[in-house]
Description:
Elements: E1 8-13, E2 19-26, E3 30-36, E4 39-46, E5 54-60, E6 64-65, H1 69-76, E7 88-98, E8 103-112, E9 115-130, E10 136-147, E11 166-180
Antiparallel strand pairs: 1-4, 1-11, 2-3, 2-11, 3-6, 4-5, 5-7, 7-8, 8-9, 9-10, 10-11
Amino acid sequence: MTTVPSRVSTWTLDRAHSSVEFAVRHMVVSTVKGHFRDFEGTINIDEENPANSSVAVSIDVASVDTHEPDRDAHLRSDDFFNAEKFPKITFHSTRVELTGEERAKVIGDLTIRDITREVELDTEFEGRVKDPWGNERIGLTATTTISRKDFNVRWNQVIETGGVVVGDTVKITLEIEAVRQA
């Protein structure tokens, strides 16, 4: 019996060359951005049928960084993420829908604070290269927008002029470089 070699390639996220960022309105007049320093993930690409590909990512909540230590501590508290009780944010794709030659919607389950909701990541394939050390690398950019209230991240205060301190809509941007493992 002969076996056909698998056309599924496995890639791991290169943390040193990737970012997991978020942006949210602050006091109605500005946008605050932050990122998570610690995360890991695997991408399985079906080379013959990219729609059969999959993604799994895990983010360490305690690694949140907005360049403001007091705000970061508040984000780790139960008012927001409760990093002690819910130490990970996870994403597991459930399907991939090709929308163009280099574009796809990666649909999957995002879990924050033990609440899981389906989200759609608009994803663009940025390219594939061989690095100077012989490793194969790919680049991807993915974006989505979520309601933080959908994940029970509800802390807020009303400001004197109307509006609230923290907006509900959170824009998420992933800039991913991944290295082929198999």
